[in-house]
């Protein structure tokens, strides 16, 4: 239950503070010119999901992780979503790198790469698995995903 409350609070605060931006416009993605490789990722994801990518700028409510500068997921209706920390909005080079990074995660989601969410019925000796173990699963998944697209990001000029 703790994990669900934290997750709900995270998204509630994020979306209350965010500025929704139509991602794809006539002047590029969120108004900045992106490298062809990144534009290609956008097109690939939107084609696979059949939806335009939604971009949100906001503050992440989990202050325990100041390194959190972006997140991405495909929501229940199939819309690919990228959330980026608001202070990156005026840092085009770093912003492009974060967008690319999140797009690589989204592409894995669009390709059906598995995620693992504990059932609310699974209990451990410390409590509900989704409350006490989900962060461990998320960390492991993150390590695997980063390993999968690391060379492609580097080849595109991002570190």
Descriptive notes:
It contains five helices and eight strands. The protein has helices spanning 2-17, 36-49, 92-110, 129-132, 134-155, and strands at residues 19-22, 24-25, 28-29, 54-58, 70-74, 80-85, 123-124, 127-128. The radius of gyration is 16 Å and the shape is globular. Mean pLDDT is 82; it is low at 1-5 and 7-22.
Topology:
Layout: H1 2-17, E1 19-22, E2 24-25, E3 28-29, H2 36-49, E4 54-58, E5 70-74, E6 80-85, H3 92-110, E7 123-124, E8 127-128, H4 129-132, H5 134-155
Parallel strand pairs: 4-6
Antiparallel strand pairs: 1-4, 2-3, 5-6, 7-8
Beta fraction: 15-25%
Number of helices: 5
Average pLDDT, rounded to a whole number, is 82
Major beta sheet, specifics? Answer: 4 strands, mixed
Element order: H for helix, E for strand: HEEEHEEEHEEHH
Helical content stands at: 40-55%
Count of extended strands: 8
Which structural class do the helices and strands define?
alpha+beta
**Gap between N and C termini:** 36 Å
Poorly predicted runs of 5 or more residues: 1-5, 7-22
The best one-word shape is globular
Strand order of the largest sheet: 1-4-6-5
Radius of gyration: 16 Å
Give descriptors for this structure.
159 residues; alpha+beta; 4-stranded mixed β-sheet; two-stranded antiparallel sheet; 5 helices; 47% helix; 18% strand; globular
Précis, in short:
The chain is of the alpha+beta class. The chain contains five helices and eight strands, in the order αβββαβββαββαα. The strands form three sheets. It has a four-stranded mixed beta sheet, sandwiched between helices. It has a two-stranded antiparallel ribbon with strand order 2-3.
């Amino acid at each position: 239950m703790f994990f669900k409350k934290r997750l709900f609070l995270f998204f509630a605060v994020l979306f209350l503070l965010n500025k929704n931006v139509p991602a794809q416009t006539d002047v590029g993605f969120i108004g900045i010119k992106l490298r062809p490789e990144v534009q290609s990722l956008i097109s690939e994801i939107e084609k696979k999901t059949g939806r335009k990518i939604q971009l949100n700028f906001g503050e992440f409510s989990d202050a325990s992780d100041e390194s959190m500068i972006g997140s991405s997921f495909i929501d229940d209706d199939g819309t690919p979503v990228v959330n980026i920390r608001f202070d990156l909005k005026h840092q085009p080079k770093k912003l492009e790198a974060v967008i690319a990074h999140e797009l690589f995660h989204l592409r894995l989601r669009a390709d059906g790469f598995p995620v693992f969410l504990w059932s609310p019925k699974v209990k451990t000796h410390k409590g509900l698995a989704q409350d006490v173990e989900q962060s461990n699963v998320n960390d492991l998944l993150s390590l695997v995903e980063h390993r999968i697209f690391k060379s492609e990001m580097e080849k595109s000029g991002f570190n």
